Amino acid sequence: MPRTALLVSPRTAVLVSAALLAAALPLSSARAAEDPAPVPVDRFEGEVPFAAQPADGIFTWGSDSDDPPQLQLADRPDAPEGAKVLTGTYDISGYGGFTHDFAANEPAHDWSAHKGIRFWWDGQNTGRKTAFEIKDGGANGEASELWTTSFTDDWTGWKQVEIPFTDFAYRTDYQPVGGIDHVLGLTQMWGYAVTLPVGVKSQFAMDDVELYGKADQALRANVTTDAAVYPVEEGGTAAVKVTVATTGSAPIDAPVTVAYETTDGTADPGKDYTPVTGTLTFPAGTAPGATRTIHVPTLRDKAAEPAETIPLKLTVTGAKAPVEPPQVVVDANGLPYLDSKLPVKKRVADLVSRMSLEEKAGQMTQAERGAVGNGGDIATYALGSLLSGGGSTPTPNTPEAWAKMIDGYQLRAQATRFQIPLIYGVDAVHGHNNLVGATIMPHNIGIGATRDPGLARRAGAVTASEVRATGIPWDFAPCLCVSRDERWGRSYESFGEDPALVQSMETVIQGLQGPADGRELKDNDKVLATAKHFVGDGGTEYGSSTTGTYTIDQGVTKVTRQQLEAIHLAPYRTAVDRGIGSVMPSYSSLDILGDGQGPVKMHARADMINGVLKGRMGFDGFVISDWDAINQLPGDYPAHVSTAVNAGVDMMMVPYSYKDFRTTLVDQVKAGRVSEQRIDDAVSRILTQKFRLGLFEKPYADTSGAARIGSGGHRAVARQAAAESQVLLKNSGGVLPLKKGQKVYVAGSNADDLGNQTGGWTVTWQGASGTHTQGTTILDGMRKDGDVTYSKDASAPTAGHDVGVVVVGETPYAEGVGDVGNGHDLQLSAADKAAVDKVCAAMRCAVLIVSGRPQLIGDRLGEIDGLVASWLPGTEGDGVADVLYGKRPFTGQLPVTWPKSEAQLPINVGDTAYDPQFPYGWGLTTLAKVPEGGMVTLHALAVAAAVAGKAGADETGRALVAKARLIVQQKVGTGITVAVAKPFADADHLSLTGRYGAAVEQLIAAYKAA
């Protein structure tokens, strides 16, 4: 997994020279008699293989392709142990190093009997720090806690570096799992890693990693409290549970004492609480897990006041003390903002009037949960929000662990003056996609293909229910981008290329939030929704991106003002009308032709955020920045902050720079570059949503709905969505639906791959091939319905089968990583092409394309009998099988134009020149027989549709247009010409905008041209 540079921490390593070593050999005689024998970890004699991450063994990593060091096992006559040593060269610009992960299919290593870890290092006298980390607990080496220290290479030749385990500190800048228990247990160790110095070209050699010494009790035993914060109502008594634990299961072999006393906080002794002092004793022989309780009584007075803190000092003898001392918090009470009966507006005004500038700045700050370590910074910086980025999950990745983690963060917020709860956000863009076992919906491109607003709403409701049940009240969805170029790596996050289609699918907002007035936001199955990315992210020009190797994502959208209004802004007008709670600006730049500004980053466009969104549209929610987006603005960091805030961004997603942002924002206000009025507006908007969500009354997770996560009822909605998203593009000779009695030959890379089927933004940011969550593949579903033979590469004999189904397409990607030209194209892989060719040459065949965007298939269209755009159907492959076997009819329609070649892109409905492989809106059906009567029937349908349009009878109007579409598609067959495609596509746009009579007239034009 990606890594960031390790933080360094002080250490007390002992450096032993090679000469001293020679004098001391053998090691066993040099150690104290009571010490256990050293235990080898790595001898580097060839017993541990080099591997590719995350396989077991030694592997390298780095921030880019040239940062991983070059490793080898080399024979060295001066090797401190054995014949070989591990050698390497490096020249690192970002970060790089190597890891040894222990075998995940074997028990973890128990290091608890030893004092520390040591190894031989061939010094180059670089004067640079080298970071060394160990991996503790969790499921395996890549799902463990990282504990780190460092040593300085300030010598030449071999020296032995000894690092006591007491020198290792919990790593706070990066954790692959965000922390498990924040205790260096040592009984489940999964390996170690070395991060090499940056900015120096050098080499290293290392040998004989081993455990040494005997662990004393102060290392093996530790004292913990059951929480770091103990909120208590005024007049109540806090109960602080103190527990002794050991790194093994053995009882403690010497007494452990804990002296305690209340110390100065913001609460007054004698007035707000009764001071306590004393000593707890755990005698020798006490079993690990034994608990004692300290009681801290608080006193009631008649004053309304904010929360007050009572730190509890613990002095521990015979064991490690808690990482931080606990503190009792006397809850805020009697203040108007705490009165749930008052109108939200009054509660907000009261609270804002009491807050300091620093507290307000904290509310405008959002950090990544992996950056806040044990959570202490939440109170220190009065943070208003945390998020989980893609793949940022607790361990284990279960609903219970999510709720426990978020409750722990919310508890930290209770230690602030006004106990303002956090609002926790997550990218649940097609279900609760970070959670293993959640119901994963088709990506938005598939939802757009369903043309079913009711289903979109139900899909949103399922997502909201599963997200809120894990303690998360805020979803960074839906994406309301209008995708105008399918080379974009985010195109599958769009409902389609037509703003009218996107607007029709915005029923998902009500699924997520409930009614537009927000009255259901406090319910345990609703979340705050986010319209993203404002505005024009789907219209960026190919080749305009300046972000890394991206080609189109985060680029420049060049439009006239009329195009901006009609295409990209239209969905946001609808979202505001639907009561959307938050909006996220785009990374991209907007260049409105003729306005004289040129390209301007959206996070800096006050004219669009303040002027259009908040002003003209009347948006009353809050604006959240995209991930670290302000760092893409011009100027220095203070300019980034003031520009974005003044442009109307209310909360800043600054995942790892939250401290700098908060401090800088305060400084900018004091310098007069950001007004206090602007700060109050931003904070009021944020607090309004927190009150509406009911977080002040119920900050902790309501897990009563957790049983519905991944339930049959929820999966049934996803199964229906998968079925309705299937677009039948070609069906020569009625090859589909399949018949029960047919012998079906199934091939292709995506027939039996749940990861490919769910795509990006699934468990991890980029997604991954293979099985990483729970669901059914398309093959699984087909096997339930028919007589199926499966051969992924079509190498099995094809004889004796009636029909072939070849499931091909893309592997997962997200955002600019998936841009065409950035290692991706729109072609099928060579293996997929070969499978199509072999199967379709041997029998009648249907080809399913599982992808986030159209794939170029025109050169093989003649040999294919059936062609289906399956998009990314999610976890419920049964839904795809349902339409293949006729349990449900094919009803999907293309949400984007299917091009003939990449050179045609961008190609969209409404273009003057329009010659696609399949036009926007195309979709054959197996629902019903095509109406007879040809042109006569079409004219009758046109009259009836016009009447329906004038009467506002939308359901009737859409049904009439659908009938006309079937007549036209039957006549057109595979003969889609320019004269057919343009009016056909225009008809679907007209139908979506309620102009049903005009839509049928366009279909008549297509019919005549066929």
Automatic annotation (TrEMBL):
The record's top EC class is: hydrolase
Q: Which reaction does it catalyse?
A: Hydrolysis of terminal, non-reducing beta-D-glucosyl residues with release of beta-D-glucose
Give the family per the record. Belongs to the glycosyl hydrolase 3 family.
Enumerate the UniProt keywords alphabetically. Answer: Calcium, Glycosidase, Hydrolase, Repeat, Signal
A Pfam family reported for this protein in Swiss-Prot or TrEMBL? Glyco_hydro_3_C
Q: Which SUPFAM superfamilies match?
A: (Trans)glycosidases (SSF51445), Beta-D-glucan exohydrolase, C-terminal domain (SSF52279), CalX-like (SSF141072), Galactose-binding domain-like (SSF49785)
Q: Which domain of life is it from?
A: Bacteria
User: Is Aminoacyl-tRNA synthetase there in the keyword field?
Assistant: no
Name of the protein this chain belongs to: beta-glucosidase
